[in-house]
Write a structure and sequence with these properties.
Elements lengths: L4 E3 L2 H4 L4 H14 L4 E2 L11 H4 L1 H17 L4 E3 L3 H16 L1 H11 L8 E3 L1 H9 L1 H6 L9 E4 L22 H8 L3 E2 L13 H4 L1 H17 L4 E4 L2 H8 L2 H8 L7 E3 H8 L4 H4 L18
Parallel strand pairs: 1-2, 1-3, 3-4, 5-6, 5-7, 7-8
Helix pairs in contact: 2-14, 4-5, 11-13
Amino acid sequence: MSSRIALYPGCSLEGTSSSFETSVAAVFEKLGIEYDTLKDWNCCGATSAHALDHELYMALNLRNLSLAEEQGYEEIFAPCAACYHRLASANLELSNNADLADALKSETGLNYRGSVKVRNVLDLLTNVVGRERIEAAIEVPLSGIRVACYYGCLNTRIPRSDCFDDREYPMSMDRIVTALGAEVIDWSYKTECCGASLFMTAPAASAKLCGRILKDAEARDVNCIAVACPLCQNNLDAKQEEIRAKAGIPRAIPVVFITQLMGLAYGIDERHLQLESSIVPFNLKPAGATT
């Protein structure tokens, strides 16, 4: 596997969602995926900069893309869905808007040539690693675990671009979890918005959105919800007790990163997966586990 891949961790993975970065590292090592962390990266602007100052948002991401190109990387993968969306959207706009690209290059002194491809974790696992390699690393199939795969609203929705998966009913995570031996449910909330950063500015609205997602998952008798986004994980996990009380949801549902589930199937020490870091604990064991 080429080491010309750069991890863009973003702010969340080096903070509140460090378990995502830790589990990515453990799983990718098991799969033999070589990558480096992008040096001197900056914030992508997350969920606000692009709405408040479009040129600032573009400049922030132009710098990250330029750094990747200067450091010799052919691809960036961004585990955070917001980071992925910002980097991929900016990359697309730079390639389609020559006037803006020239203005930004003149203002910043950055001469990005557009050679870097942006992927998220699901894209990388599906189209670079592949199912055969994912299955080959399994030591403890996740039999007996029933999973709702939740993609959120950003991972498959880069406007005006080709997508690695179906925009409205994606299946890439479903196929990965199925390959791990778990049972995946068919449901209607896999790309519904959880509220993203509204949990800080409009918590009632975010709680209502999360309540719908959790209520539907609970009604389908899942053991956990699998995610590939730090904000989705935080929103569905951190205030779940309060949300459940308001929405009348009878039991708690663990919300885990896809790489944590993969690590469990790969027999990786749970300390390296940080499964205990979530508010709702994930303490299920696959049917074939010995401990």
